[in-house]
Every structure is written in C-alpha cells, then in structure tokens.
Amino acid sequence: AMYRDVLGATVSEAQGLPEHGVTTVFVNLDNTKLELLHPLGEKSPIAGFLQKNKAGGIHHICIEVNDIEEAVKELKAKNIRCLSETTRIGAHGKPVMFLHPKDCNGVLVEIEQE
C-alpha cells in the first residue's frame, strides 16, 4: 500500500513466475521501476539471499540497455563476468543478462534490453 498510496505508484497484482523461481510484484513510478520478489520454494534463486538477509533488502539492480548483445560483448571485453553464457528472457519478457557481483563492486547487476 505504501508504494501506491504514499508515492502514487502503479502496483501490479502478484504474479507467479515459476520459471524464475519467484513471485513478483511490479511497482512503476514515473522515473523508477521496482520488482518486489518472493521466493517460490527453497530452490528459488533468492532463497539464499533471504536466508542471509532476514529483513530482506535489495537483491539486484537492473539497467536497461539499447542493444543487450553489444552491451554483453563490451562488458566481457572489460573482463566483467556474466552469470550465463547467453542472454535469457527475464520477468518483463525481454532479454536479460546478470553480471557477477565480484566484478561490480559487490552488487548483482542485471542488464535488460530496452
């Protein structure tokens, strides 16, 4: 209710995304998009994060890029490790790639095709 009632955001209904191991709620503001995640089962990719961070917190940030394949190529040339060999379709139905936190100042970074 805080995002909708206090900040005026558009808030989606909860959506189960079993292929990603999460239930997500999308929060849209004029200049910001948030994804609120809840694990679907113990094997969810965010279950370990929540075990380490009982109060929750920021799991990752997402940066939109014009050309994800070119962005991945440039990042690899700069020795930024990707967490998969190829892009995959993310929660918004667009190609995404996650970058290794150790190469991004300890932050899990997702890049997403605009």
Write up what this structure looks like.
With about 110 residues, the chain is α+β, with helices and mostly antiparallel strands. Helix content is about 20%, strand content about 30%. The chain is built from three helices and eight strands. It has helices at about 1-5, 45-50, 70-75, and strands spanning about 10, 15, 20-30, 35-40, 60-65, 90, 95-100, 110-114. The strands form two sheets. Strands 1, 2, 3 and 4 form a four-stranded antiparallel beta sheet that branches. Strands 5-8-7-6 form a four-stranded mixed beta sheet. A hairpin with a 4-residue loop joins strand 3 and strand 4 (about 35-40). The chain is globular.
Structural shape: globular
Task: Label the structural class.
Answer: alpha+beta
Distance between the termini: 28 Å
Share of helix among residues?
Answer: 10-25%
What is the number of strand segments? 8
Report the oligomer. single chain
Strand/helix succession: HEEEEHEHEEE
Low-confidence runs (pLDDT<50, min 5 residues)? none
Number of helices, where a helix is a run of at least 4 consecutive DSSP H or I residues: 3
- What percentage of the residues does DSSP assign to strands (E)? 25-35%
Mean pLDDT: 92
* CA-atom Rg in angstroms: 15 Å
* Sheet with the most strands, sense and barrel status: 4 strands, antiparallel
